[in-house]
């Protein structure tokens, strides 16, 4: 006994002081389990939207992972009600492929088994203990309901949203699927499954894998039998039940589906939004060296989805896919969402993270891959713009909380994961990088993946041990904050750069004693280019220390410019004071968009510098579109004649992103010529984004004509209501109380309309407040829901006071019920 206590003490000591690197490497975030969940046959039906309930039956086939195994612990939501658990006849030995007969009948139930369901845990007692490797089969009959959108989400048809039909859909990630069927709900045990769903009349059920059977029933319902015969993890089990129209496509024999509502079944629009799917699959297959690994790929659109979910073979997407006109504005849905979710079929589904602490392997790769797709299809600048957006998102998230990529609950797995992979590609070069990715996918399929598994795959494929790279970019937090100072020694013809890393490690420990570390000095290579009278001098520099001096010989004359980290190989922030002339040349000479954008930002920070303004004006006509956009945005707020002329030129640019930026900048001018140009864009520009920017600009530039324009703009339909939303924002800024009636009329279409009425009422005007109260008691549920949501901008005390005031009025029962529920939620 003493020896055991001493051993436990010795083992516990290092754990208390364990670093994040050690925690991830030892897999402490992985869940232990005593069985291998081999197959589940999930049958669902009797869906009731009024109380979000359903009935289910799930057959479980498992294999014991220890001798004497006699009790099965399953995850099962606390709102599931188990009706019975019964043994099934012993299965024949399960082959390694885990195949299950495709058309076998429902197995007859055997003797009842003892079970206990407590909170989210269901324990089933087997009839006898199993030996290691033995299999068991049993069936659970149950019924249940869901609350708060856990696992399944039910949506009613609503006159408030006439295009939205009644529907339900599932969301399994991270650990939500056990709320609608008992399972092992952790990503370290792949299984196969069947989903047999009886859907109401007029609806289809979309699941994973292959549709084995679809049959009508006497009561008008239809039963759909889906079979997922390739193993994947349980959070990827998915279900959508809705009225849907299917458009089909092919990639080398793989069936592709685009499932949309009947109200959205415009073939031209659907194919414009999703028709590039086969091309993405082709590019991803070629890049990774692993052909698309599944038998089918469906994309199904649903209501009120947060974006997309990579359910294996059957991605679920938000129903606001762009129309053909919106595609001119490079919408997020097309540029990122569709290629991101498709990348998950390799990264997240074919190879799945072993635990949630390594989630960046799923999301980082899925965020990284679209940039590679656009590089091949639209050129390097498109990829650079894509990763520039990731860079800005990463910095915003890092400012809120600094965490490593590999850590439980990491907040930056998307953008930083993408940027770290892009750095790794630059470190290794294209051929070695993709060889390592291919090795990773082939090595880890079916096994679960950790961050070190990826490092090991790179080592096996390339011979490169990048433990140093993993240590600073994966297991530790932050990035280098570089402060660079330049000094030219004319006598020695040398340019000296003093490079200091100024990042600080100030992260506190969490409640368990774990403290994330920021490296004192990041290691990496950067390229420095110096423009000289005798030609450019280029040096590749290895950064290794907190402070170091870099010397570049052969600089015989004053430098014309100095580009630091040409090609943007290192994730960083950069402080490098330079003469305006250097920055202007950098905008013209720098080969990568990040460097040009950095220089434009430095120039924009010099408002009294005529040379800086002139450089920005010149950049408005740069040959590369994203540089033009950045320059136009940097000129916003300046009002010189040269800027006005540049912005008017940009308003006629061929790229909508440039025209939109120009329109926004022109709002600072009051001249008739500017107003006329903006009104011309309002009438003639086909871009939603440009028209939305024009609305905001004219609200500033044309005070007299703004009310009529804003009233008109509120009624203009556009993708994601960009134009109407811009009008609401302008009305709130102007405090234009006379437009309160138009704002109230738009509540049914514009989500921010109630918040705009609230903003107008904040000035003390009674009419907007009266209109808001009238809408809060509207018989249309969707309008009430939007108004109640807008009350979130009020303090809790003010919300309670408003609701108490409304509840003193005569109200319809449904209205009173909603308001009383909201009031009860707020408490006293």
What does this structure look like?
- The protein is of the alpha+beta class and 828 residues long.
- Among the domains are: 20-234, tricorn interacting facor f3 domain (Immunoglobulin-like); 244-346, Neutral Protease, domain 2 (Orthogonal Bundle), CATH 1.10.390; 364-473, Orthogonal Bundle (Neutral Protease, domain 2); 640-734.
- The strands form 6 sheets. The chain has an 8-stranded mixed β-sheet with strand order 5-4-8-2-1-11-14-13, with no helix packed on it. Strands 16-17-18-20-19 form a 5-stranded mixed β-sheet, with helices on one face. Strands 9-10-15-12 form a 4-stranded antiparallel β-sheet, with no helix packed on it.
- Strand 1 (35-48) and strand 2 form a beta hairpin.
- Helix 21 runs parallel beside helix 23 (753-761), helix 23 (753-761) packs antiparallel against helix 24 and helix 26 packs antiparallel against helix 27 (813-826).
Structural key phrases:
828 residues; alpha+beta; Immunoglobulin-like; Neutral Protease, domain 2; 8-stranded mixed sheet; 5-stranded mixed sheet; 27 helices; globular; disordered N terminus
Fraction of residues in helices? 25-40%
CATH superfamily of one domain: tricorn interacting facor f3 domain
* CATH architectural group of one domain: Sandwich
> Which residues form runs of ≥5 with pLDDT under 50?
1-16, 91-106
What fraction of residues sit in β-strands? 15-25%
Shape: globular
Specify Rg, calculated over alpha carbons. 30 Å
State the distance separating the first and last CA atoms: 55 Å
Q: Count the E strands.
A: 27
Widest beta sheet: strand line-up: 5-4-8-2-1-11-14-13
Mean of residue pLDDT values: 92
Tally of helical runs: 27
CATH topology of one domain: Immunoglobulin-like
Structural class: alpha+beta
Major sheet size, sense and barrel closure: 8 strands, mixed
CATH class of one domain: Mainly Beta
């Amino acid at each position: 006994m003493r020896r055991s206590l001493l051993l436990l003490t010795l083992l516990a000591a290092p754990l208390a002081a364990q670093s994040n690197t050690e925690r991830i490497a030892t897999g402490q975030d992985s869940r232990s389990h005593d069985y291998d969940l081999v197959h589940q046959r999930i049958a669902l039906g009797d869906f009731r939207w009024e109380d979000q309930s359903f009935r289910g039956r799930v057959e479980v086939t498992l294999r014991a992972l220890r001798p004497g195994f006699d009790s099965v612990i399953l995850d099962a939501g606390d709102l599931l009600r188990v009706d019975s658990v019964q043994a099934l006849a012993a299965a024949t030995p399960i082959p390694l492929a885990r195949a299950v007969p495709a058309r076998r009948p429902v197995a007859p139930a055997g003797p009842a088994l003892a079970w206990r369901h407590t909170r989210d845990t269901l324990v089933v007692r087997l009839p006898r203990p199993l030996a290691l490797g033995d299999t068991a089969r049993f069936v659970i009959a149950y019924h249940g309901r869901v609350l708060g959108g856990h696992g399944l989400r039910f949506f009613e048809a609503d006159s408030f949203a006439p295009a939205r039909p009644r529907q339900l859909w599932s969301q399994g990630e991270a650990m939500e699927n056990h709320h609608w069927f008992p399972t092992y709900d952790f990503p370290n045990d792949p299984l196969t499954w069947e989903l047999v769903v009886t859907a109401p009349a007029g609806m289809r059920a979309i699941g994973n894998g292959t549709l084995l059977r679809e049959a009508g029933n006497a009561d008008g319902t239809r039963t759909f039998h889906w079979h997922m015969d390739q193993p994947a993890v349980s959070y990827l089990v998915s279900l959508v039940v809705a009225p849907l129209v299917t458009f089909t496509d092919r990639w080398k024999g793989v069936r592709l589906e685009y499932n949309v509502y009947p109200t959205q079944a415009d073939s031209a629009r659907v194919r414009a939004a999703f028709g590039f799917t086969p091309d993405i699959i082709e590019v991803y297959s070629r890049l990774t060296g692993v052909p698309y690994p599944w038998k089918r790929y469906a994309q199904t659109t649903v209501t009120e989805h947060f974006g997309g979910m990579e359910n294996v073979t059957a991605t679920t997407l938000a129903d606001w896919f762009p129309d053909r006109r919106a595609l001119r504005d490079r919408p997020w849905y097309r540029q990122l969402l569709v290629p991101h979710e498709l990348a998950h079929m390799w990264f997240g589904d074919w190879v799945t993270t072993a635990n949630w602490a390594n989630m960046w392997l799923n999301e980082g790769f899925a965020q990284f891959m679209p940039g590679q797709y656009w590089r091949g299809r639209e050129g390097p600048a498109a990829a650079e713009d894509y990763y520039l957006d990731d860079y800005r998102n990463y910095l915003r998230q890092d400012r809120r909380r600094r965490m490593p990529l590999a850590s439980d609950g990491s907040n930056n797995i998307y953008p930083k994961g993408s940027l770290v992979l892009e750095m790794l590609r630059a470190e290794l070069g294209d051929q070695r990088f993709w060889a390592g990715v291919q090795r990773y996918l082939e090595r880890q399929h079916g096994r679960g993946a950790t961050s070190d598994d990826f490092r090991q795959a790179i080592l096996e494929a390339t011979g490169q041990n990048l433990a140093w790279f993993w240590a600073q970019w994966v297991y530790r937090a932050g990035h280098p904050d570089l402060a660079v100072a330049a000094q030219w020694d004319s006598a020695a013809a040398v340019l000296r750069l003093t490079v200091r890393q100024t990042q600080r490690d100030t992260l506190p420990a969490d409640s368990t004693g774990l403290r994330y570390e920021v490296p004192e000095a990041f290691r990496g290579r950067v390229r420095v280019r110096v423009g000289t009278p005798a030609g450019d001098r280029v040096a590749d520099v290895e950064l290794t220390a907190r402070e170091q001096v870099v010397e570049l010989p052969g600089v015989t004359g004053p430098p014309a410019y100095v580009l630091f980290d040409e090609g943007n190989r290192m994730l960083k922030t950069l402080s490098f004071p330079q003469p305006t002339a250097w920055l202007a040349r950098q905008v013209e000479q720098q080969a990568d968009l990040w460097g040009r954008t950095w220089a434009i930002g430095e120039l924009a920070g010099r408002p009294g510098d005529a040379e800086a303004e002139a450089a920005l004006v010149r950049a408005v006509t740069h040959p590369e579109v994203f540089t033009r956009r950045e320059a136009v945005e940097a000129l916003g707020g300046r009002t010189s004649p040269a800027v006005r002329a540049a912005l008017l030129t940009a308003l006629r640019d061929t790229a909508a992103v440039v025209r939109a930026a120009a329109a926004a900048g022109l709002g600072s001018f009051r001249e008739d010529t500017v107003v006329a140009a903006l009104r011309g864009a309002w009438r003639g520009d086909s871009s939603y984004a440009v028209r939305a920017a024009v609305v905001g600009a004219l609200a500033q530039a044309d005070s007299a004509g703004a009310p009529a324009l804003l009233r008109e703009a509120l009624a203009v339909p556009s993708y994601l209501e960009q134009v109407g939303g811009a009008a609401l924002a302008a009305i709130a800024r102007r405090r234009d109380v006379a437009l309160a009636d138009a704002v109230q009329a738009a509540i049914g279409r514009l989500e921010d309309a109630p918040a705009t009425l609230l903003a107008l009422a904040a000035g003390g005007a009674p009419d907007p407040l009266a209109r808001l109260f009238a809408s809060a008691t509207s018989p249309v549920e969707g309008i009430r829901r939007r108004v109640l949501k807008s009350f979130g901008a009020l303090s809790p005390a003010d919300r309670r006071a408003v609701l108490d005031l409304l509840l003193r009025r005569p109200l319809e029962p449904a209205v009173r019920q909603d308001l009383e529920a909201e009031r009860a939620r707020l408490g006293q």
